[in-house]
Amino acid sequence: MQIDILTLFPQMFDSPFSFGIFKRAIEHKLVSVNIHNIRDYTHDKHRTVDDYACGGGAGMVLKPEPIFEAVESIKSGISLKQEVDVLPVILLTPQGRPFSQQVALELSKHGHLIFICGRYEGVDERVRKYLVTDEISIGDYVLSGGELAAMVVVDAVARLLPGVLGSEASLVDDSHVSGLLEYPQYTRPAVYREWTVPQVLLSGNHARIAKWRREQAILRTLERRPELLDKTDLCLEERQLVDRLKQS
Ligand code: 6GU
């Protein structure tokens, strides 16, 4: 997957993609990330990227020209028209659609993504209307720019790409993938400061372990995020378990 990120602060991206599975994914050429400084697409001597809001008011607005030119420059490197036609151009903004595991999965199906990190008070509306194809928010709070949000989205998407995680199996048990939070994890020692690992996990009985983990995931989801269970695929027996737990 190719990922292009447009930002006014390219140095913010120096470290997040240099560690762990992301570093490995880049080295193995499973993903390539290009950071573009929006300022490089200006033509005036002061390299102006923002201007006063038309109609007045506090705060500056990102100008359309450098953003259009940056995206068009990336697109001009793509020879297939069909590829350009399906290429998502995603604006990170608190006004966007809420990001989720579902959205990460949807984005991971694309071969190429472009992200635009908004800054200051906003981005000229013509960027949204005539350039951007999707707007994403990572939660109901305000960040000072889209950069951290882009890092969050890119991380969540990249780990879904084939070959990026060591074992593909580790994906299905992740919190939110099944619509449940993940079950409790333990490692050795079996006893630490008199706190013991649940006996079932040491039993070697894989069927019992799987059943226990599934129940724990349901229990944990019910305790912490009950609203998630409305959308989770549960069998009849599990639905009944939830109903019993809700009553007790
Ligand atoms: Cl994508 N951008 C900004 N500036 N703030 C946010 C956000 C994005 N998502 C949540 N808050």
What's this, in brief?
With 248 residues, the chain is α/β, with parallel strands linked by helices.
Output the structural class.
alpha/beta
**What is the third-level CATH name, the topology of the largest domain?**
Alpha/beta knot
- As a percent range, the share of helical residues equals 25-40%
Oligomer: single chain
Distance between the termini: 48 Å
Q: What is the count of distinct domains?
A: 2
Largest sheet: 5 strands, parallel
Quantity of strands, as a count? 9
- Order of strands across the widest beta sheet? 2-1-6-5-7
Q: Give the CA-based shape.
A: elongated
- How many helical stretches? 9
Features:
single chain; two-stranded antiparallel sheet; Trp Operon Repressor, Chain A; five-stranded parallel beta sheet; binds 6-chloroguanine; 248 residues; Alpha/beta knot
Would you mind describing this structure in some detail?
- The model has no long low-confidence stretch (mean pLDDT 95).
- A five-stranded parallel β-sheet has the order 2-1-6-5-7. The chain has a two-stranded antiparallel ribbon with strand order 3-4. A two-stranded antiparallel sheet has the order 8-9.
- It has nine helices and nine strands.
- Helices cover 35% and strands 17% of the residues.
- The chain has two domains: 2-158, Alpha/beta knot; 173-247, Trp Operon Repressor, Chain A (Orthogonal Bundle), CATH 1.10.1270.20.
- Helix 4 crosses helix 6 and helix 8 (206-224) crosses helix 9.
- The chain is elongated.
- It is α/β, with parallel strands linked by helices.
- 6-chloroguanine binds next to strand 5 and strand 7.
